[in-house]
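Chapter review: from sequence to fold.
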Amino acid sequence: MTTIRAVDVVGGPEVIGAPLDSARAIIAAVRRGFPVAAVEHVIASGRMTLAEIDEVVLPRKTLSHRRKIGTLTSEQSDRLVRAARVIAEAEETFGSQEKAGRWLRRPTEALGGEKPIALLDTSAGAAEVETLLGRIAHGIAA
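The C-alpha cell string follows.
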C-alpha cells in the first residue's frame, strides 16, 4: 500500500495523467516515464528540495533537459517513486508531512549518522530507511 500512497506524493493521477489505483498501473506509468510535473509537484509540496532531487532523482542539468522533453525516463521515474514511497511511509509513521520531513533530514545514528533522505539514491539505502521506519512504527528501539 505504501507504493499506492506514494502516488499522492508525486501529485496523483491528475499530475501523472493516468489512473494509478494498483501496483500494475504504477509500474506501467513508471515504464512510460512520469511527466516532469511530478518532480515539480514534489518540490512545490515541500517534500523534497531541488538540491535533494539533484542528489536522489536526477541532476539539475538533466532536469532542465527533461523539462524541454516533458517526461522523465523510466529510470528517473523509478527513482522518484522510490523516494516518494519512503516519504509516504515516513509521513504515515510520524503522522505529518512536517514531522516526517524533519526526521528525513536529521542525521540518524541507526543509519551510520547519515540523513535518511540522503540514502534514497540507491535501492539498498531506501530499503535500509524503510526497515528503520518499520521498526519505529512498531515501537522497536531504533
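Two observations follow directly from the output. The mean pLDDT is 94. The first helix runs from residue 2 to 9.
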